[in-house]
Amino acid sequence: MIRTGLILLLLIATKPSEAQIHGCTDPLAVNYDSSATHNDGSCFYDLTRVSVSKSWDLPEVVEETSGLIIWNDRIWTHNDDTDINIYAFDTIDIYNYDIYPLTGTVNNDWEEISQDDDYVYIGDFGNNSGGNRTDLKILRVEKGSLLDKSPVIDTIHFSYSLQTDFSSTGPNNTDFDCEAFIVTTDSIYLFTKEWVSEMTSVYSLPKTPGTYVADYIETYNVEGLITGATFLEREKLVVLCGYTSTLQPFLILLYDFQNNHFFSGNKRKLPVNLPFHQVEGIATEDGLIYYISNEKFSYSIITTYQKLHKIDLTNYLSHYLDSDPHSANSVSQGKIILYPNPLRDILNVEFPEVSQGMVIFIYNNTGQLVKSKNVSDGILHLPLNVSDLPQGIYYLSIKSKNINGNFKWLKK
Q1: Domain hosting residue 379, numbered range
Q2: Nearest Cα to 156, choosing from 128, 193, 120, 127?
Q3: CATH of the domain at 234
Q4: Could you tell me if 248 and 158 lie in one domain?
Q5: Do residues 176 and 68 both lie within one domain?
Q6: CA distances from 3 to 8, 200, 201, 330 (A)
Q7: With helix as H, strand as E and coil as C, how does the chain read?
Q8: Is it the case that residue 31 has pLDDT exceeding 80?
Q9: pLDDT value at position 53?
Q10: How far apart are CA 54 and CA 134, in angstroms?
Q11: How many domains does the chain have?
Q12: For 44, 118, 268, 353, which has the most beta carbons within 10 A of its beta carbon?
């Protein structure tokens, strides 16, 4: 009996759980695998160019615009050489801008701006002149003090863990340049601008003042020069901007990655239809509409003036953002989550426990019942096809023995 019992225990212990199927989980990819349950980062895509939907001429005061954030209902940027001011723009009137001096600082080579809830971060880490700077740093500016034009500033100093040789490489000949970074809940992640390899490497460091050696994490071949980054942490979405050696701008979409290994998920490169534009900054609020900026560039008979551009990536990212119950496009009541909101075709409802005797009712804005559905017991996720409904405001009512809720949502 003892031997039989041990054998049974071993069989139970070694019985495989339901196996995950690794593959490409992005339905927009060429190699999409509908049976895959785990994104292994293998997706690849048709080459597609994107175009800007609107452009603005920027004032001469920001000829060398080098980074962008959206904050306090305005777009903020800075120059990358000597100028210690930050500029806040209104896209309704692009020449209506405010100037915020970072008094007491020096602009050696400010190449990027980022933010979290409390601080604005300025990356003084441009290193293309010789690749041998030993004073790389990020300025951290308290937001409230910045708005008061009495900025409280501290400094994060760093070096790269992989850089051991600090002899000059000459101009534009180093892989230890940087013009892009993001700020997460607890860390800063740098995306290098690698002139020699045309790759980008990710390094991490704390986001508190001090002196650090930035830890190397991973490298990805972007086939170009990375100049900016924007990040939605909850949605696991990073979008990089950059350009090729022939000044062909591009975006790289990184999404559905594991933890903060940004290259472990989907990686899609989108050339932007702006030839000879030195794109430097990128920002978004919702992951669908993006703003990018280019600095003034002049060579031989070609001159491109500084501009701000708007790009709509809804066709490339809405399917991903709309499938995330924790995205900014979700609403919740108690532990019931409804997403996306607004939506086009599919309304998703997530329940905190299995339903019992549930009925879903949908009413239009005049209170008329337009759709109802009996829901099978045991459901935790319910996709509702509402593609047949016209655009407008609707109300969803959930009635069951154990789960009840009411939601207002928008069909667009």
Answers
A1: 331-411
A2: 120
A3: 2.115.10
A4: yes
A5: yes
A6: 9, 57, 55, 54
A7: CHHHHHHHHHHHHHCCCCCCCEECCCCCCCCCCCCCCEECCCCCCCCCCECCCEEEECCHHHCCEEEEEEECCEEEEEECCCCCEEEEEECCEEEEEEEEECCCCCCCCEEEEEECCCEEEEEECCCCCCCCCCCCEEEEEEHHHHHCCCCCEEEEEEEECCCCCCCCCCCCCCCCEEEEEEECCCEEEEEEECCCCCCEEEEEEECCCEEEEEEEEEEECCCCEEEEEEEECCCCEEEEEEECCCCCEEEEEEECCECCECCCCEEEEEEECCCCCEEEEEEECCCCEEEEEEECEEECCEEECCEEEEEECHHHHHHHHHCCCCCCCCEEECCEEEECCCECCEEEEECCCCCCCEEEEEEECCCCEEEEEEECCCCCEEEEECCCCCCEEEEEEEECCCCCEEEEEEEC
A8: yes
A9: 96
A10: 40
A11: 2
A12: 268
Residue 247: inside a domain: yes
Is the entire prediction scored with pTM above 0.85? no
Mark whether 375 and 234 lie in a shared domain.
Answer: no
Hey, which of 16-25, 90-99, 169-178, 358-367 has the most confident mean pLDDT?
Answer: 169-178
